[in-house]
Amino acid sequence: ETRQVIIDKFYSDE
Amino acid sequence: MLEGKFDEASLLKKVIDAMKDSVKLCNFNCTENGISVQAIDDSRVLLISLLIEAGSFEDYRCDRNIVLGLEMESLNKIIKNGNASDMLTLVAEDSPDALNLIFEDKRRDRIAEYSLKLMDIDQDFLKIEDMKFDAVVNMPSAEFAKICRDMKTLSESLQIIITKDSVKFNSEGDFGSGSVVIKSFTDLEKTEESVRITLEKPINLTFGAKYLNDIIKSTPLASQVTIKLCDKQPALFEYQLPSGYLRFYLAPKFED
């Protein structure tokens, strides 16, 4: 089974 | 003061159609260079980055930076009232409380004018580092859209496997599985039908079919889509505007 990750895991707040 | 005139309302119509189902509230940041938007969908899986440069407009001027806080569904209702072939001018004062949209029919001198109330939208802005991609695929956007729709009938996950000369879209579900393989080829007459694959490293990534079917709502914007992938990173799906782009950064799914 695959698990969706969120975009915040890759890009940080400016 | 912002004043931007599109030769045709159809461009903004297509942009709103591509975004409105993923993001509800957007800040349109207007500067002298054009209009940019960054927005993330409610599940925080899909980041949308829009840039409509001044070159996409017939006339464009913005002598002071203006932020237009827009509710996409309301903007969509107004845009739908105009004809795609109408000229469309966006007007806003400095520190505005409304955006004015003026549709002008080229022939019958019919002018429709709307005013859309602006909203105060507090949005975080994510920094997207320019990154080196392991693979870049340029392909017909309509073909990519069909593959995403077809594969979604089988499963909520779509696997993308790229080797040196082919891209394999793979979907495995409860009742069965399916895959589509496309290969590099150049169509000299109709270049927009070509498939070009640039590969640094093989790719094997899985994405949510739901998000891909949101992304393909951009298909009317451009005949080609550029897909940039890097191992264990969000994929970039880019549709070119006359001057600018509509980009989608989609976070992958990982094996448990």
Written account of the structure:
The complex is a heterodimer of chains A (14) and B (256). Chain A is mainly beta and 14 residues long. Chain A has strands at residues 2-4, 12-13. The mean pLDDT of chain A is 91. Chain B has helices at residues 10-19, 72-81, 141-152, 209-215; strands spanning 2-6, 25-31, 34-40, 46-53, 59-62, 66-71, 87-92, 98-104, 111-117, 126-127, 135-140, 157-162, 166-172, 177-183, 196-199, 203-208, 224-229, 235-241, 244-250, 253-255. In chain B, a hairpin with a 2-residue loop joins strand 18 (235-241) and strand 19 (244-250). In chain B, helix 1 runs antiparallel to helix 2 (72-81) and helix 3 packs antiparallel against helix 4. Chain B is globular and about 55 Å long. The model of chain B has no long low-confidence stretch (mean pLDDT 96). The A-B interface holds A 1-14 and B 40, 43-47, 124-129, 157, 206, 208, 233-234, 249-256. Strand 2 of chain A pairs antiparallel with strand 10 of chain B, so a sheet runs across the interface.
Averaging pLDDT over every residue of chain B, what do you get?
A: 96
**Any idea what the shape of chain B is?**
globular
Helix content of chain B: 10-25%
SS-based class of chain A:
mainly beta
* Largest sheet: number of strands, sense, barrel closure of chain A: none
Structural class of chain B: alpha+beta
Tell me about the largest β-sheet of chain B: 9 strands, antiparallel
Low-confidence stretches of chain A: none
Which descriptor suits the 3D outline of chain A? rod-shaped
- Low-pLDDT stretches of chain B are none
Mean pLDDT of chain A: 91
Helix content bin of chain A: under 10%
H/E element order of chain B: EHEEEEEHEEEEEHEEEEEHEEEE
